[in-house]
Write a structure and sequence with these properties.
This protein is α/β, with parallel strands linked by helices and 401 residues long. Helix content is 40%, strand content 12%. It has helices at residues 15-28, 47-58, 71-85, 100-111, 126-134, 154-160, 183-194, 220-223, 256-269, 275-286, 290-311, 348-358, 383-398; strands spanning 34-35, 94-97, 117-122, 138-143, 165-170, 200-204, 231-236, 249-253, 326-327, 361-362, 364-365, 375-378. The strands form three sheets. A seven-stranded mixed beta sheet has the order 2-8-7-6-5-3-4, with helices on both faces. A three-stranded antiparallel beta sheet has the order 9-12-11.
Length: 401
């Protein structure tokens, strides 16, 4: 019997996807599940983006696209970077891919050799480390502790960099914690990177527009222009514009070498992104932007409710994040207890499994993101679901002995 590739041995299934699937299985049995595990906006795609896609299809824009994106979309992305981030990129410095994940995958595959190290502030999105491993690299997690607001400290970053370091991956606002770096905090990170010119920097800014309480987003190439040619700035339309299913991400860099390498990989693993999705993305990026603040205000209300409610539960501590649509509660005080159903809580994995099996609330264990004992809740869902979910979590914790 033929065997699968050895490279798959180090790649795991996404924990958030696995928990979402578990929730679907319970729902298929007629059980009412409150799913707080999926990082997907519950808002609709903007109507003007859908109309643009429809018009493109009706107009015959259904042929093979340029592999790196249409000039019209690249020009819209260039305007977006200038408008939102004060960054200047022309069309030749921009690549369009099938979602932000493909940008990261292509970048790692284009640059990592066996044993190259990639520094990843942790807790981190589950796919970063697996993509690095797939490309032959070695992920180097750098803990970002709750006491520091789950943010990357300059001294910890400095200690993690070696001659073998190829990349630093930044993701602020962060998945899973929602932590975001101020301009001063980002400048401190940039100061470290200026001392290590052999390291590329990938900044995943997908949650850029989801910040609250007058917090001002910043991205590292904007904060420190001297890093412009070493930074790959990645973004997309999935989170801000609720276009997860359209599968469109993009990146830009001042380095022709890096963009050329990524473009080469992009050309081999993709035939280009759907033309109608590109038309929709142009409409989203160039269209009315008021909806971003309107939706962010709704997310902020949800965040405040979840943080306030969870903080009242005996044994749960919940940090208040600056952005994204996640909270990352600490459940250390639950370790050693036993649930009403008889499950001994020895880890955050036990906690989330007990919660979904006994009270049918789907969350994700902190272990999946590289830091325990925590669990991730997504508040990208209705207040009705959040009220029900938080009430069930309170009951689950209250029943433990």
């Amino acid at each position: 019997m033929p065997s699968t590739a050895d490279r798959l041995k180090n790649v795991s299934i996404s924990a958030s996807a696995a928990m979402t699937q578990r929730a679907r299985e319970l729902a298929a049995k007629g059980i009412k599940v409150v799913s707080l595990s999926s990082g997907e906006p519950d808002f609709p795609t903007p109507v003007h983006a859908i109309e643009a896609a429809h018009a493109a299809a009706l107009g015959g824009d259904t042929k093979y696209p340029p592999m790196d994106g249409t000039l019209a979309l690249k020009t819209a992305i260039s305007r977006k970077f200038k408008r939102d981030n004060n960054l200047d990129y022309d069309a030749s410095q921009i690549i369009v891919s099938g979602g932000g994940k493909q940008v990261i995958f292509n970048a790692m595959l284009a640059t990592c050799n066996a044993g190259d190290e990639v520094v990843i502030p942790t807790p981190s999105w589950v796919s970063y480390a697996d993509i690095v491993k797939f490309a032959g690299g070695a992920p180097v997690p750098v803990p970002c502790y709750e006491q520091a607001g789950f943010k990357l400290r300059a001294e910890d970053l400095e200690a993690a960099i070696t001659p073998r370091t190829k990349w630093l991956i930044l993701n602020f606002p962060n998945n899973p914690t929602g932590a975001a770096c101020s301009r001063a905090e980002m400048a401190a990170i940039a100061g470290v990177m200026l001392r290590h010119p052999h390291v590329w920097i990938l900044t995943d800014d997908i949650y850029e527009h989801l910040v609250y309480d007058d917090f001002e987003f910043c991205t590292i190439a904007e904060v420190e222009p001297r890093l412009h040619d070493r930074v790959l700035t990645m973004n997309g339309v999935s989170k801000a514009y609720a276009m997860t299913g359209w599968r469109l991400g993009f990146c830009a860099s001042g380095s022709k070498e890096l963009i050329g390498a990524i473009s080469n990989v992009n050309g081999q693993n993709s035939g280009g992104i759907s033309t109608v999705a590109q038309a929709a993305a142009i409409a989203a990026l160039d269209g009315p932007q008021d909806l971003l603040k309107e939706r962010a205000a709704i997310y902020r209300e949800r965040r405040d409710f979840v943080v306030d409610t969870l903080s009242k539960i005996d044994g749960i501590r919940c940090h208040k994040p600056e952005g994204a649509f996640y909270v990352y509660p600490n459940m250390a005080c639950m370790i050693g207890k036993t649930t009403k159903g008889g499950r001994k809580i020895e880890s955050d994995v036990d906690f989330v499994m007990g919660l979904v099996d006994e009270h049918h609330v789907a969350t994700v264990q902190g272990a999946a993101y590289g830091m325990s004992p925590y669990f991730r809740i997504s508040y990208a869902t209705s207040m009705e679901m959040l009220r029900e979910g938080c009430a069930r979590i309170a009951q689950f914790c209250g029943e433990m002995r």
